[in-house]
Each structure stands twice: as structure tokens, then as C-alpha cells.
């Protein structure tokens, strides 16, 4: 009996210990949750009183700029960030862990920076290529700076003037085609040397360039034009290109899609010395096979290429599939294209959304007769993909990167990635003004109206 009684007491004692342990665990968990909540409140700017005291800077992101409230007093700082651009952007405080997520078009985010002392803080978008294309800003924190007031940079709940939007779009379209100074893709005539070598001279320099009516930028150019001079040679030609660098920095030229010896590939300092500012450099090679190629800077290409340093380089005959039947449509064996269009696409730098260095309504219209055939070569020298759509005429894709396709195909929209070239053939068999554009719609339209990557085939009745 004694043993039984002692056993029961032991079990009661054990139960009591378990209860004490459970209570202790609960106390620890509650304390941890409270501490976590306190840490979260501190990381996000503290309690309501701290939020009220914070300076809230409103920033707007676009291609390619960070704009808004950039002068603040010391103390708690919050950034209200809105992406008013056409592609994803973010904001990062350089050298810190403070960053927003990548924001889609019209998306916003709040970034709490805590207490900032006087100084200058660099803000960037760290999506590849965006900072170097212009998305850098300095946030200045200084005594005496006024705290920002008002709604966020994208305009809050401002009432939309629908009639004004209609009028802006209509007027922008009716302005096409608009005249501007400067023209790119101009064929360059070489000097023929004694041994038959074709010599071309390219001067690299920063030049005023009118992208759209009244919109003049400092473009990085070959011979003062965007795109640079069009070079066209035959297979077997000896080519000599003399580069005179008048840029404020070094450069080189990569012959993209062109077969060259390794020491002519144009990648400083790997295959050649950097062409320093004020220096000349000579490239020499023989063309060994046909190409729908291009040329552009490789040194700091993220800066030099989007700002205008690109051009067209074609070797040999265009590989049109004469006499072939594709999806029931036969290409005439004796076809003579009425026009061959090199169309260089860009979307960044000072040039921005453009076709051959121009933004609508300054893009070139292409005038044909009903029944004409036309060849176009798309060259993407930008940072984004561009699905190129023709409103009426199917495009026969017959070459990719200058390489003839074993099985050409018809498409009304051709998606061109950065660095790619597509060659297409179209039969202009219906009269009218037919729009031709990138089908990422905010690459061609905005509140101010049509702009950017738009042109037209004007087909006159036979």
C-alpha cells in the first residue's frame, strides 16, 4: 500500500513538472513574438509617431531615369517609388541592402530607409543595363532641406482628361512623317586602294542628333549618324576600316556576325589594344562568306551601343528563296525586290525607342507600288525583345542571323531578341497606308500620343 501511494504521488509530481515546462515554453514564445513585432516595427520605420515624422520622398521610374524628390532633411526617410515606365525597374541604395522589388509598369512600393544623416546617397536601378542607360540619381540629405509635400510622383487620384488623350493620339499620328535633321544608314563609298582593298573611314564622336522633332540628344556616333554608315561588300573583298576615335573614352569595334580572324574580332584588350581617345586604329580582313551582319562598340557597350554606336554590314547577295513554294505561296524565280530595308531597332540610351535612330513621327515611311516585293532586315541593337508586326502583308522569314533557313515560314509578327537579325520578304499586293511597328504597345504609344518604334508601308495603287 505504501508503494502504491508513493507511486501516485510521483506521477502527480511528474505532471506538475510537465505543466511548469509548458508554461515556461509559452512565456518564451510570447516574448519572442513580441520581440519580433518590435523588430519589424523598427525595420519598417517604427510606430505611427515615427511614420508621421518621416520625410516621404516620391520617386518616379522611367526609361531611363529616376526622378522626383531628391533633397531631404536628416531623420527618418521613406521612399515612395512608382514605375511609370514601360518595362520593370527597381530602386537600390548603392552599397546597402536597401532595395525595392522589381516593379512592373504602374506598380508602386514603399522603401523604409530609417534615420539618415546628412550626406549623399546614390540611387540606381540594378536591372542589367539600366543604371548605365541613365537610371542613377543622388539623394541629398542636408540640414535646411524642406520635407516633400503632396501626392506621389505618378499623380495620385488626378482626374483623367479623356478628350485630351484622344486629341494627343490623333495629332501625333497626323504628324507623320515629320522631318528631322540627320539620317542614318547612309551607304558609304569606300576608297579603292592599289591592291583592290576597300578602305572605309569611321570617326567616333559625340554629335547632336534629332531623334524626333525638336528632341535633340548627344548621340555617340560613327561619322555623325545613327545608325552609322551602311557598309556593303562582296564575298572575297579585302576590307580595311580606319577608326579615328574622338570620344572622351576608349572604344573598339566588334564585327557582329562577320567572320574575321581572331585578332580582328574587336574585343579590347583581349584581341587588340583599346583605341584611346584621339587615336586611330586599323582593322583589316577578307570577307570569306555572305553575312547579314552589323558592327558596334564592344568596350563599354552597355553605354556606347544604346547611345548610337551601331551600324549595318552586309556581305554578298541576299539569300532570297527564289522559286520556292512556302505554304502554297510561290516566290517568283525572277523576283526583283523594289526595296531592301535595313531596320535597326533600339530601346535604350539617349536614342531610346526607335527605328534607324528615329522615333515616330520622324521614322521613314516606305513607299511602294501595288504588287511590289520588299525585303527587310531586322537588327536588334537594343536591350529588349521586339515583336515586329506588319498590319497587312505576311512576312516570309527566310534567314536568321544571315543564315538561310532550310524551311522558310510566314508570320505576321517576328520576335527579334537583342543581337539577332531576321530577314523577311513581303508582297505589297494591297494599296493603302499599312502600319508597321513593334507590338509591345508601350514601345509605340503613351499618353502624349504615338511615338517610338512605328512606321508604315505606303502602297500606291497600280
Radius of gyration: 31 Å
Portion of residues in beta strands equals: 35-45%
- Mean of all residue-level pLDDT scores: 88
Helix content: 10-25%
Q: Major sheet: size, sense and barrel closure?
A: 6 strands, mixed
Structural class: mainly beta
CATH homology-level superfamily of the largest domain: Cupredoxins -  blue copper proteins
CATH architecture assignment name of the largest domain: Sandwich
Report the CATH topology name of the largest domain: Immunoglobulin-like
Weakly predicted, low-confidence segments: 1-9, 27-52, 151-156
Count of β-strands: 32
What distance separates the N and C termini?
Answer: 121 Å
DSSP summary: helix tally = 4
Widest beta sheet: strand line-up:
21-20-23-28-25-26
Instruction: Identify the CATH class of the largest domain.
Output: Mainly Beta
The best one-word shape is: globular
Could you describe the 3D structure shown?
This protein is mainly beta and 462 residues long. It has 2 domains: 49-141, Immunoglobulin-like (Sandwich), CATH 2.60.40.420; 191-460, Cupredoxins -  blue copper proteins (Immunoglobulin-like), CATH 2.60.40.420. Helix content is 14%, strand content 40%. It contains 4 helices and 32 strands. It has helices at residues 2-43, 48-53, 162-174, 301-304; strands spanning 55-62, 65-68, 71-72, 75-83, 92-93, 108-116, 119-124, 136-141, 191-192, 198-212, 215-222, 231-233, 238-245, 254-256, 280-286, 291-296, 310-315, 325-326, 329-330, 339-348, 352-355, 366-369, 372-380, 386-390, 395-400, 403-411, 413-416, 421-428, 432-438, 445-446, 449-450, 454-460. A 6-stranded mixed sheet has the order 21-20-23-28-25-26, with no helix packed on it. Strands 9, 10, 11, 13 and 15 form a 5-stranded mixed sheet that branches. Strands 22-32-29-24-27 form a 5-stranded mixed sheet, with no helix packed on it. It is globular, with a radius of gyration of 31 Å.
